[in-house]
Fold this sequence. Notes:
Blueprint: H1 12-22, E1 27-31, H2 37-44, E2 48-53, H3 56-65, E3 70-73, E4 86-92, H4 103-113, E5 114-125, H5 130-135, H6 142-157, E6 161-175, H7 178-188, H8 193-198, H9 200-210, E7 212-213, E8 218-231
Parallel strand pairs: 1-2, 1-4, 2-3, 4-5
Antiparallel strand pairs: 5-8, 6-8, 7-8
Amino acid sequence: MSRPEAVPVPQTGERLLEILTGRKARKVLDIGCGHGALSRSLAAKGFEMTGIDPDAAAIEATRKAVRHARFERATAEAMPFADGSFDAAIFLNALHHVPEAVMRQALAETRRVLTKGGALIVVEPLARGSFFEVMRPVEDETEIRAAALRALDADIASGNWHVARHDTYDRLSDFAALEEFIDYLVAVDPARKAAARERRGELDALFKVNATASEKGFRLIQPLTLYELHPAAG
């Protein structure tokens, strides 16, 4: 369903801030933090941020670049934190990067490290939209994105979480040209570089078909789904 142009759609950062502020969260865990963009942004707003990622190089670089947060090399399914360590935890486009076999274990670990009144926020990209269609030649995440949502739905259905909020919305990404889009994909995962180079012609054709005009140049749309979950009473 289209939205009136006069009503801007809140982007992810605004939604996360609204939830964290509403929950009066102070200590926040960024799961799958990568190079720390989310942790940097939230730390600047006064949250006490901790980020984890299994990539040692990313953690090392992030520790140097983001001084006002804590970063640890760790996997989501085996976190090095005591029970009840955090007021909130966030999987931002990260749950589908957890190996499918341990996705629910990662969710169980998240419940363990949350305080009694804590909140888990999961933001996952859906396997549709113009951004996804242009990205597919580099990495087709159709199946793993679906697996992440299945794991999440199964964990909710098992009575482990209370769903406080569930939204689906569009992330609007503007690029000056195809090269900037490719740089974005590779920055998220450097392993994509070879595929992007080899399939540049296909990417160019898809970019021309799917991108729409924007003030910056070109716009691609990625539908996202957001869950705010609270651990069910034990």
